[in-house]
Amino acid sequence: MALFWKISAVVTLALCLQVFAQKRERPLAGGWRDVDENDEYTQKALQYAKEEYNKISTNGYITDITKIIRLRKQVVAGMKYSMEVETVISPCSENDFNTEECQNQKTKKQRCSFVVIDVPWRNHKELISSFCRPI
């Protein structure tokens, strides 16, 4: 009879550990979640980040996003997007990029990280962080 109780205790403990492990695998509410690169809102946030980076950049202009490395979003007082991408940087703006003079300019690849916050009900969107480094 004592053996039955010992086996029951071990089985119960194993089941409890299994349930606890499953709960830990779920993302926390309000935590970061990976996003598919085809997500419409994330693409809009990425386009916004590119435009804002180009407005403030002194290192050249992003003319193309060549590779998406990681896209994430987080529910805050609005939506926060974290985006890591590879880009092509040119000394010419997008408006001037197709001119013959700019076509002869060298472009370089960079890896960029952007964080955008979007609060649609306040009509507020902001690039809160941007960082690019050469590859």
Can you tell me about this structure?
This protein is 33% helix and 40% strand. With 135 residues, the chain is α+β, with helices and mostly antiparallel strands. It has a 5-stranded antiparallel sheet with strand order 1-2-3-4-5, covered by helices on one side. The radius of gyration is 24 Å and the shape is elongated. The protein starts with a helix and ends with a strand. The model has no long low-confidence stretch (mean pLDDT 83).
What structural class results from the helix and strand content?
alpha+beta
Shape: elongated
Question: Helix and strand string, N-terminal first?
Answer: HEHEEHEE
- Could you describe the largest sheet, including whether it forms a barrel? 5 strands, antiparallel
Cα end-to-end separation = 68 Å
Largest sheet, spatial ordering of strands: 1-2-3-4-5
Look at the structure and give the mean pLDDT: 83
**Percentage of residues in DSSP E strands:** 35-45%
Helix content: 25-40%
Q: What radius of gyration results from the CA coordinates?
A: 24 Å
Count the DSSP helices.
3
Tell me how many strands there are.
5
- Provide the low-confidence segments as ranges: none
